[in-house]
Amino acid sequence: MHTKTPLSKGSVTHSTSKGKATTRPANAAIGFIDQLLNKIPLPRWAIYTIFAAIILIFLICIICICAKCCCKSKKKKKKKSDDQINLQGVNGSTTTALVQPGSRDGDYGSAKNRGRLLYSLEYKAPELTVGIKQAAALTAMDLGGTSDPYVKVYLTPNKSKTFETQVYRKTLNPIFNEQFKFEIEKADLSESTIVMKVFDFNRFSKHDVIGELRLQLDSIDWNHVIEEWKDLSEPSKFEDEILGEICLSLRYVPTSSKLTVVILEAKNLKSMDPGGSSDPYAKLQLVLDRKKWKRKKTSVKKCTLNPYFNESFTFDVSFDQIQRVQLVISVWDHDKLTRNDAIGKIFLGCDATGNQLRHWADMLSNPRRPVAQWHHLLSSEQVDSTLQLKHTVRIPIINKNF
Length: 402
Ligand SMILES: [Ca+2]
Ligand SMILES: [Ca+2]
Prior knowledge:
Layout: H1 5-14, H2 18-39, H3 44-91, E1 116-124, E2 127-136, E3 149-156, E4 162-164, E5 175-183, H4 186-189, E6 193-200, E7 208-216, E8 226-231, E9 245-253, E10 258-267, E11 280-288, E12 291-297, E13 308-316, H5 319-322, E14 325-333, E15 341-349, H6 354-365, E16 371-376, H7 380-387
Antiparallel strand pairs: 1-2, 1-8, 2-5, 3-4, 3-6, 6-7, 9-10, 9-16, 10-13, 11-12, 11-14, 14-15
Bound molecules: calcium ion (2 copies).
One calcium ion binds at residues 272-273, 278-279, 333-335.
GO molecular function: calcium ion binding; calcium-dependent phospholipid binding; clathrin binding; phosphatidylserine binding; SNARE binding
Keywords: Membrane, Repeat, Transmembrane, Transmembrane helix
Region (Disordered): 1-22
């Protein structure tokens, strides 16, 4: 067909015009392909069909590969932004700029991102003002990828008041701009923790906790108004449910080495039995050098959440030992048929903190005088994790001659 093309090849090299130079080789290429096709023992339409099919398959392959790559990078991006926000929580206070999702490239494992909260704190005796400003990038708890967030604010351990913001429907970035005021003496600030808990409202089911902020107020410089973003963390393992309070009196007489503990009463104990009651009793345990040393217990008071015990226990504790001993008091619910349930626990001693330490110190500085005080019960797990008791393991001796 195009038999002339090989002849024109010579003139191409001498041509000064660039346009001509490109058209000539093109013609040459077409001629070459034509010759090649002539050599294939198939009709032209069959060759074209095969070519079209090959190109089609090739295109489909490319499209598939592209789609897969895109999906992967999207997932990776999402994961990165999730993890990155959580990392900020570890560092404590952050700025808005730092916690922008996707602003950093690192892959920080699979810790769950819960979002972040902008809050403010101000103390002007005797009023603590907590501002819940806004939240961002909250976790979606509902189908459809949204939540209905609101925030509960309270102080622990004296959880007398709990405030709540409004519920914002279907958003992960609510703007609350609400303020709550707590009356609290400056001396009590050092023992208190402010809890800001973000929930997802659900009309027909239990509200889900999205995350929380827990700030110990003793570490805050009250000369300034604090306003900052913080990453929400996992809700505390030790849920501050109300376990109740216990009142006890302590008396130490150094000359006779007698420690007298009077378990006076308890109130608002958590109900452990069906029917909304408990059968409380208290266990007293002395721990010396992290080992269980002496133990006693009160009688069981049937079917009450406000038991009155007024039972006295005296231990021999030398002056040297009183510096190292810890008094662990736990309140239990007695069950006839099943295992007794722990309601709550506290410990007093030189290693204790807050209210408990104060009570112990009052006892030591007032020898021979009984000092009575109320204490909020904490969960057993919480107290045990603080005490980290060495449980004495008794190995049975099988061979008596040993
Ligand atoms: Ca919801
Ligand atoms: Ca019971």
